[in-house]
């Protein structure tokens, strides 16, 4: 990623579907000499709350997998466990959103698996590395990753800043893709319902 040209970064950013949607974003600008960790070491850089949320998600997946082999008898049990898991996810989401209130907060304009576009009061220089925390309320989850500014455009009295993910876990990137598709599907259902009225 660091050896790519700006044009290549834009191409990579545009490879993923993006949806216009607002999600809360906490960000921290990193020093020029900050060394980005390898993706395999990203977990060690996460705040403790994010590590716990990640571990809980992993446990849920492992716990539900054996139930699939039980066939139809496990459907109600799986549904019950999914509801319990959802309650825990919602509580963790609340805890994560309380985290790092002192950091610079922003809102996304759109996001996808390759990056995010945020609304910023201040201009950000292209090439600046940023630590991000993204809060996906619809999925009751949060993502910790690193990104780089690839575009900063003045719009009215603010700036639209495009950030490409430079270090993100595959599971979190998948979650962003899934979230964008869920939101798109919900928007389409809502539009169809409105057209029928």
Keywords summarizing the entry:
single chain; 197 residues; alpha+beta; six-stranded antiparallel barrel; 29% strand; globular
Structural notes for this entry:
A six-stranded antiparallel barrel has the order 2-3-4-7-6-5. The longest helix is centred in the C-terminal third of the chain and has 27 residues, at 170-196. The chain starts with 5 loop residues before the first helix and ends with a helix. The mean pLDDT is 83. The chain is of the alpha+beta class and 197 residues long. The protein is built from five helices and seven strands; from the N terminus they run αββαααβββββα. It has helices at residues 6-14, 42-45, 48-64, 75-98, 170-196, and strands spanning 18-20, 24-29, 104-112, 115-120, 129-136, 141-155, 158-167.
What value does the Rg take, in angstroms? 18 Å
Helix content: 40-55%
The average pLDDT score comes to 83
Percent of residues in beta strands? 25-35%
Structural class: alpha+beta
Instruction: Please outline the major beta sheet.
Output: 6 strands, antiparallel, barrel
Which strands sit side by side, in order, in the main sheet? 2-3-4-7-6-5
Distance between the termini: 49 Å
Reading the helices and strands in chain order gives HEEHHHEEEEEH
What is the general shape? globular
Q: How many runs of DSSP E, i.e. beta strands? A: 7
List the helices and strands and how they pair.
Layout: H1 6-14, E1 18-20, E2 24-29, H2 42-45, H3 48-64, H4 75-98, E3 104-112, E4 115-120, E5 129-136, E6 141-155, E7 158-167, H5 170-196
Antiparallel strand pairs: 1-3, 2-3, 2-5, 3-4, 4-7, 5-6, 6-7
């Amino acid at each position: 990623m660091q050896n790519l040209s700006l044009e290549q970064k834009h191409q990579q950013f545009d490879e993923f579907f993006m949806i216009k949607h607002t999600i809360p974003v906490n960000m921290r600008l990193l020093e020029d000499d900050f060394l980005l960790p390898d993706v395999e070491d990203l977990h060690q850089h996460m705040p403790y709350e994010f590590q716990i949320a990640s571990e809980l998600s992993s446990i849920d997946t492992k716990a539900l997998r054996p139930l699939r082999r039980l066939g139809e008898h496990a459907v109600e049990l799986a549904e019950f466990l999914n509801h319990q898991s959802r309650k825990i996810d919602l509580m963790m989401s609340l805890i994560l959103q309380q985290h790092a209130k002192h950091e610079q907060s922003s809102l996304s304009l759109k996001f996808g698996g390759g990056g995010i576009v945020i609304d910023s009061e201040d201009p950000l220089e292209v090439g600046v590395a940023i630590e991000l925390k993204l809060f996906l309320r619809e999925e009751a989850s949060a993502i910790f990753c690193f990104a780089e500014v690839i575009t900063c455009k003045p719009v009215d009295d603010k700036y639209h800043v495009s950030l490409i993910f430079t270090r993100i876990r595959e599971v979190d990137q998948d979650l962003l893709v899934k979230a964008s598709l869920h939101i798109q599907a919900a928007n389409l259902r809502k539009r169809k319902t409105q057209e029928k009225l």
